[in-house]
User: Fold this.
Amino acid sequence: MKRTIINKILIVLLAFFTFPFATIIGYGFWDVQAYSQSETVTSGSWTFYYVNYDFSVDTLTTIQADGALSTSFSRWTTDNGSLESTSKSAAVYFPYTTTDYIVTSTATLSATYTAYGISFETVLSSNISKDNGYSLRFDPSRNDGSIYVLERTNGRDRSTIWQVTSSSSSALPSYSSNPTWWTSEHTISIEVSSLTSTTKQAIISIDGTQIGSFTFSAMSGTTYYAGLYAPNSNLSASSFSVALNQ
Assistant:
């Protein structure tokens, strides 16, 4: 939910009535700008969020009003304080309009016999089920625990373009040795930046630890989508965001 807040003018007025001469001479004349709730200050610079949801307060009604799309919203619920899949093949997509971005998802997989996905660089047509783009998968059942990225074409999984496994990264324990880790909450981020007009780089991190990077072909379009995919009713997400990669 986005609410407009006027910040800087209040600071200027307070400073003017407290130190009027210093305000004019020392501070200068500030421009008046409107900032939405989805913008935050980090280390003195602005971080702009195209999507920024905390599902303990943001509901299905909220995300639909903001332009989210789904193959069927009946397959999702926010009644329990998180975005939960309630049926198989549940997918939800959030729009953004930048070529360089950071997708961040904090979620829990409640069952280990299947995976869940984070869509990014996705382009949708009028038939939402025919998505084209990429999907990162968190999968305890593949190679005794792995995170990998698939290319998606016309709603189908295609080739694996990147993969890290429990045997290749110390950040991922094997499922056989630590199954509880795979059903615990984790934050995964996908940091995307343009290399050329047709090629991009993605850096993948989990719980703040970088686990790999790869290059991929950029999708063409003006509006892209990122989102979540649950093959079964086994996914619970507490937050999801898409931020401008500055």
